[in-house]
Design a protein that fits this description.
The protein is α/β, with parallel strands linked by helices. The protein has a single domain, classed as P-loop containing nucleotide triphosphate hydrolases (Rossmann fold, 3-Layer(aba) Sandwich), CATH 3.40.50. It is built from 7 helices and 5 strands. Helix 1 packs across helix 7 and helix 2 packs across helix 3. It is globular. The N and C termini lie close together (about 10 Å). The structure holds shikimate-3-phosphate. Shikimate-3-phosphate (S3P) binds next to loops.
Length: about 170
């Protein structure tokens, strides 16, 4: 099986959904942010502090290439799509699902999360602008799944059904 990449803005549920799909399909689950932390020995906020967002993006792209393997479910960080090379790589190695939600819903989940340097203490307007600036990149995914008012389980079932229809 090809790998499955889950993309989408912070707080859309990529990790929860990824874990459910991996369990259901008996596949390996990879959380890219966790891999970055274990490869660098540093937390995400520390990497942002020491190397800036650009430095983080370089590490993120390297780790994406290092950890990608067949038949894995890979939950990515919300900004991975901003590097076009990453989209090309993910498409070559697997299938990309965009978990789409509204910024109003996501804002409530992320604006106080100190582990998310690109979200913490940002206003709704600031996060909306970031969201809009990334929209067209997310939409390059192979499939878009709306997650609004759906549980991670519901979203996982939709993704699995979609995968079955491709066989
Ligand atoms: C980021 C999203 C985070 C993490 C980093 C940057 C972003 O991942 O990669 O804090 O710029 O959107 P999640 O989408 O899992 O929060």
């Amino acid at each position: 099986m090809k790998s499955i990449y889950l993309v989408g803005f912070m707080g859309c549920g990529k990790t929860s959904v990824g874990k459910i799909i991996a369990k259901a399909l008996n596949c390996h689950f990879i959380d890219l942010d966790e891999e970055i932390v274990s490869h660098t020995g540093k937390s995400i906020p520390t990497i942002f502090e020491e190397k800036g967002e650009n430095g983080f993006r370089i590490i993120e792209s390297e780790v994406l290439k290092k950890v990608s393997s067949d038949s894995s479910i890979i939950s990515t960080g919300g900004g991975i799509v901003t590097c076009p090379e990453n989209i090309v790589f993910m498409k070559q190695n697997g299938i990309i699902f965009y978990l789409e939600s509204t910024i109003e819903t996501l804002y409530k989940r992320i604006h106080q999360d100190s582990n998310r340097p690109n979200a913490v203490n940002r206003s709704l307007v600031e996060l909306k602008n970031l969201f809009i600036s990334r929209k067209s990149f997310y939409e390059k995914a192979d499939f878009t799944i709306s997650v609004t008012e759906k549980s991670p389980k519901d979203v996982s079932v939709e993704i699995i059904n979609c995968l079955n229809s491709l066989r």
